[in-house]
Write a structure and sequence with these properties.
Elements: H1 3-8, E1 16-19, E2 23-27, E3 37-41, H2 53-73, E4 78-82, E5 93-98, H3 115-126
Antiparallel strand pairs: 1-2, 2-3, 3-5, 4-5
Helix pairs in contact: 2-3
Bound molecules: guanosine-5'-monophosphate.
């Protein structure tokens, strides 16, 4: 069971944004920007491009809804999307609010993401979905 499956199962806490029957969205614990969100399929697959066509299409539609919520809740020009998957072997899409090109830099981290501010951020996004 991956760490993301444990989060989806409620065994590990997270700052939840949204879920449906196939997908789950929650804040990245180590955000690159405020509102940095992960979209994860409930079915475990390591590599995103091993996901079946219908499921990856549905994942994109779910991510789009979440991105629209992020765009409404977090001041930014656009919401960017990235797939790395180098750390956690459970496919996921990173959604990151962007104002400048450098805002997608994964070496940059939000300073002091307190539990209060993370909970507030997740609630603000969730309210827009
Ligand atoms: P990647 O696999 O895309 O290279 O990176 C995994 C991402 O998942 C990282 O941005 C990391 O901060 C995030 N992450 C790793 N473990 C946890 C966790 O337990 N909870 C949450 N919310 N995010 C995590």
């Amino acid at each position: 069971m991956t760490i993301f499956s444990k989060i989806i199962a409620g065994e590990i806490p997270c700052y939840k944004i949204a879920e449906d029957e196939k997908f789950f969205a929650f804040l990245d614990i180590n955000p690159v920007q405020w509102g940095h969100t992960l979209v994860v399929p409930k079915k475990e697959t390591d590599y995103i491009f091993d996901i079946e066509d219908k499921d990856i299409a549905d994942m994109m539609i779910f991510a789009k809804k979440v991105a629209e919520g992020i765009k409404k809740a977090i001041p930014c020009r656009k919401v960017g999307m990235a797939v790395l998957g180098l750390e956690v072997p459970h496919a996921h899409i990173h959604l990151i609010p962007l104002t400048n090109e450098g805002d997608m830099d994964f070496k940059h981290k939000v300073e002091d993401p307190t539990p209060e501010k993370m909970a507030e951020t997740a609630a603000a996004i969730a309210a827009m979905i």
